[in-house]
Amino acid sequence: MVPAPGMWLTPCVSSQCPPKVSISCRDAPDGSITLSCHARGSYPRPIHISWLRDGKDILAEKDSSGILPNADGTYHTQSPLEISLQEKDRHRYACRVEDSSLSEPALVWGKGG
Asked: What domains lie within the chain, and their CATH numbers?
């Protein structure tokens, strides 16, 4: 259902709105961790998340959640990265978010080394 113009959409929908980027961390019983990069409140729709280890691009083993709509007309996505017990203290990890509303990619550092 599309609301009537000006009903409840954020001001960003009429132009561009940069995402709010954060990383959450979940510990597993085996000592490994899962980092999740979250990009919320973005407009327009295309959002790309990638991961870096010690400043170099790596591939996440799991796919992102896809780009999903919010009730206010903006979008969100998230991408998990599993880190083994052996790797988590030896490296630094960051997620990079690219979006047309950003003048340069957003880089957020997560737990690790």
From this structure: 17-109 (2.60.40.10)
Q: Please give the backbone phi and psi of residue 3, each rounded to the nearest 5 degrees, phi first.
A: -70, 160
Rounded-to-integer distance, Cα 110 and Cα 113, Å: 9
Other beta carbons less than 10 A from residue 77's beta carbon = 21
Q: What is the pTM of this model?
A: 0.80
The CA distance from 37 to 60, in Å, is: 11
Distance CA 4, CA 12 (A): 16
Tokens of 22: 């954060």
User: What is the C-alpha to C-alpha distance for residues 50 and 72, in angstroms, rounded to an integer?
Assistant: 25
Confidence grade of residue 58 (pLDDT, cut at 50, 70, 90): very high
